[in-house]
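Q: Hi! Curious about what CBPN Carboxypeptidase looks like structurally. Here's the sequence.
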Amino acid sequence: MAGWLRSLLGVLLLLEVAAALSFLHHRYEEMVQALFHVQSQCPYVTRIYSIGRSVEGRHLYVLEFSDYPGIHEPLEPEFKYVGNMHGNEVLGRELLLQLSEFLCEEYRRGNERITRLIHDTRIHIMPSMNPDGYEVAAKQGPDSNGYLTGRNNANGVDLNRNFPDLNTFMYYSGEISGPNHHIPLPDNWKSQVEPETLAVIQWISSYNFVLSANLHGGAVVANYPYDKSQDQRFRSHRRTVNTPTPDDKLFQKLAKTYSYAHSWMHRGWNCGDYFADGITNGASWYSLSKGMQDFNYLYTNCFEITLELSCNKFPPEEDLERQWMANREALVAFIEEVHQGIKGMVSDENNNGIAGAVISVQGISHDITSGDMGDYFRLLLPGTYTVTASAEGYQPRTVTTTVGPAAPSLV
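A: Let's find out. The predicted structure is below.
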């Protein structure tokens, strides 16, 4: 078949898929129905599970895509998207529902790219972390929704200011050469967080997530850690200072992957703000304490960024299709970023996997650990690295490896 004809058929296929999607705002019951509809259409590569309930008792549902749903396969990375953390920032919720349907439809059609992605990645999609707040916002509707109406959960708490503050501990530890990874939680942390936050912390403690993004609205920019400034004099919303992680260049690359695959985020000028390349260090924008993306980086193996996707927090339904087309490629391309760097198994002399082994990369003061089966995943930019695996009761092992721009290196 001629190349131009294949390209034309590909375009027509995407147009057909786009036309099949329902570009509507989904209330809680409708969102649940949409998720179960996808699961019924792709039963062999999907699973729906709940990580807990909101203050008002709504399930926090997750839709999983995998060739073996419900099972962690060694050397297959775990990825997650979280939407609607702020109840009145609704575009991410709708985009994740669209993405779920898109992945299912394209898998059924035999799309090689999507099939490979689902076979090689365990993808977890949570459309709404704050279903109670969404219902408050939805009652107001897109036309009259206030800037804060429905933002918080049913207890009036901003969930993105509700995670344990590990940044302060990390900044203090840095002064005494302490850790900036896998920082332990304070003893009384469960009494300080909301049910939705508790459910998410237990969720990310149970899965060895490698890469993640949480979807917000009110701006158009890809925001990466740290969100909280190290200099406490700059805690004010009006005073900012760039506060990079040890993986700053990697985070910039991850953020640019999304912004440049997005139809206009990378242009920089959006919503009256300018962000070069459509990305920003969180603290450089404004300092945020107890946020989710910093918590992921400091407590788990997961690298998370925050995606601000629309000037209008609650866009009208007639804008949803345009927004989907602007974000579709970026949403898929960002998932593919989980397949970079190095991965491997940490085993003993009898080839038994060692859980909790520490993987250190020379020159980057942020370690990750192996999962329950002994497999590990370390996102890295292309280059040559000296990597050490160590575990209590064993001799450490150090190797030098070169990371290419394509598939992860097996170490």
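A: A fun detail: The domain at 28-232+239-337 is CATH 3.40.630.10 (Aminopeptidase).
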